[in-house]
Design goal:
This protein is of the alpha/beta class and 492 residues long. It has 21 helices and 16 strands. It folds into 4 domains: 171 residues, 2-Layer Sandwich (Beta-Lactamase), CATH 3.30.450.40; 163 residues, P-loop containing nucleotide triphosphate hydrolases (Rossmann fold, 3-Layer(aba) Sandwich), CATH 3.40.50.300; 70 residues, Helicase, Ruva Protein, domain 3 (Orthogonal Bundle), CATH 1.10.8.60; 41 residues, Homeodomain-like (Arc Repressor Mutant, subunit A), CATH 1.10.10.60. Helix 3 runs antiparallel to helix 7. The structure holds adenosine-5'-triphosphate and magnesium ion. Magnesium ion (MG) binds next to helix 9.
């Protein structure tokens, strides 16, 4: 609509309305909210009964907002007379009719709906001579609702709306781009050795990015080999304590008093054999980060001492009443379900809540199979000429990985040794992957104790005789494992 036409036909009070409209439209920057507002204001200020707003999306004109139009009409836009919409959109010129029944332009209208409508006004939504879409209002029950002045008004209104829509779109695009760039920076900054682009891993890394410069205790939960220690070290390495110590203590292997003396230290004479003072590891980590690995294995008495430390940051050496205040960030890890341990009474709930201010759950590898090909290439980085055949990769992706990433890493090392001619084929993979059954040693005719013996033997062999690790993987205590080995006379 030409400027001079608008100026000639628009009324004074409409100009004032336009001024108010422009203020409202400029205040809304979210696209959907803006479109709704445009629609409502258009209906209200023209005295129309119904309306809709269309925008060009790709090749098609799409209805974005509609008011009082019945569902059937909207679902089937041809009922709105495509001819009229196209005419407005492609010519960029508005259409006004005050009595459609007597308007020859609608005489051949294919639209049943159109036939019933009395007053119609449709204007293009323009921005810098580009047509973004159109705004349509009508009245079914009254004729002469619109006149030249309404046409001029709605055209001016649509010009304002066009600018606001374009601004909102631009803002949306920029903010999406901004979020994307921010995530990119966040996910590449310092996380090079944590491979994984699955949604599950992104969630983990997002949480990591949130806690890096925070001092809250963190509990990392995940099956064996999922990368708990890797995440703990990364949090330390990227945080403000990076120049201070990171000390890890595996809590599973030690008898209770030994663990306590490791953690808290002891005074000379605290127990038989304590012939000098020894500083505890927590104190050694002062200013830095302490990683309590397998916290679920800690006995109740030590739990109480750890609770005191988490509450007020003080420790007491064994055999000493002097309290010492420390500044240590605590990260703990477990592959147990601590909720269950708490309900069984094996783990203090008050300590649990202290430890898991932020809980990071690392999903098992079988729940994020998308990451497997990436991890495989990562572990094959030193062998750029070595490729994995499609079938072998398929097997790697399908295997359930009970030992998670550590097991995958070992499987790749195994395959590298086995592979010839620059290719890892199915036959080069470890037997448990090829056989596709997680229990390749089970055969018909075996007794349960034979099966158990075979499994224990295999596990210990795989772990190069590491019984502690074997017990953990088998889900039994080290003592039980020892008993079983003795009974079966397995050479571990
Ligand atoms: N996302 C990952 N990207 C690359 N390497 C990983 C990833 N997660 C784990 N690893 C590697 O897998 C191995 C096992 O990881 P880590 O020791 O952190 O696991 P964990 O959960 O502490 O295992 P466990 O419960 O057995 O102590 C390490 O060599 C680690 O570097
Ligand atoms: Mg670990």
């Amino acid at each position: 609509m030409r400027k001079d036409y608008i100026e000639k036909n628009i009324k004074k009070d409409e100009l004032f309305t336009l001024y108010k409209v422009s203020k409202i439209l400029n205040s809304i920057t979210e696209l959907n909210a803006l479109l709704k507002k445009i629609m409502d204001l258009a209906i209200k200020t023209t005295g129309a009964e119904r309306g809709f707003l269309m925008l060009k999306e790709g090749k098609a004109l799409e209805i974005k907002v509609a008011r009082k139009m019945d569902k059937k009409t909207i679902k089937k836009p041809t009922m709105l007379s495509k001819t009229i919409m196209d005419k407005v959109f492609y010519s960029g010129k508005p259409i006004l009719t005050s009595n459609a029944h007597h308007d020859p332009r609608f005489a051949n209208s294919e639209s049943v709906i159109m036939f019933r409508i009395l007053s119609i006004l449709a204007v293009p939504l323009l921005n810098k001579n580009k047509c973004l879409g159109l705004l349509y209002v009508d009245a079914i029950t009254q004729k002469n609702v619109f006149n030249n002045s309404s046409l001029a008004y709605l055209s001016a209104f649509a010009n304002l709306a066009g600018i606001a829509i374009e601004n909102a779109r631009l803002k949306e695009k920029l903010s999406n781009e901004n979020v994307r760039l921010k995530l990119q920076v966040r996910f590449s900054g310092g996380y090079e050795d944590i491979i994984g682009t699955s949604t599950e891993m992104k969630k983990v890394l997002f949480l990591v990015s949130k806690v890096i410069n925070n001092e809250v205790p963190i509990l990392i939960q995940g099956e064996s080999g999922t990368g708990k220690e890797l995440i703990a070290r990364t949090i330390h390495r990227l945080g403000t304590r990076k120049d201070k110590k990171f000390i890890a203590q595996y809590c599973g292997a030690l008898p209770e008093t030994l663990l306590e003396s490791e953690l808290f230290g002891y005074k000379k004479g605290a127990f038989t054999g304590a012939d000098h003072d020894k500083i505890g590891l927590l104190e050694e980590a002062d200013g830095g980060t302490f990683f309590l690995d397998e916290i679920g294995e800690v006995q109740l008495q030590t739990q109480t001492k750890l609770l005191r430390f988490l509450e007020d940051g003080t420790i007491r050496m064994l055999g000493n009443n002097v309290e010492k205040k420390l500044n240590v960030r605590i990260i703990s890890a477990t592959n147990k379900n601590l909720d269950a341990e708490v309900s069984k009474g094996n783990f203090r709930d008050d300590l649990y809540y202290r430890l898991k201010v932020v809980k990071i759950s690392i999903p098992p590898l079988r729940k994020r199979r998308d990451d497997i090909p990436l991890l495989v290439s990562y572990f094959l980085k030193q062998y750029p000429n070595l490729k994995v055949t499609r079938e072998a990769m398929k097997r790697l992706i399908e295997y359930p990985w009970p030992g998670n990433i550590r097991e995958l890493q070992n499987a790749i090392s195994f395959s590298v040794v086995m592979a010839g001619e620059g290719k890892i084929r199915v036959d080069d993979l470890p037997p448990e992957i090829i056989s596709r059954t997680p229990f390749p040693h089970i055969k018909y005719g075996m007794s349960i104790s034979e099966m158990e013996k075979a499994l224990i033997k295999l596990t210990i062999e795989k772990l190069a005789g590491n019984r502690k690790e074997a017990a953990r993987i088998l889900g039994i205590s080290l003592r039980t494992l020892h008993t079983k080995i003795k009974n079966y006379i397995i050479k571990g």
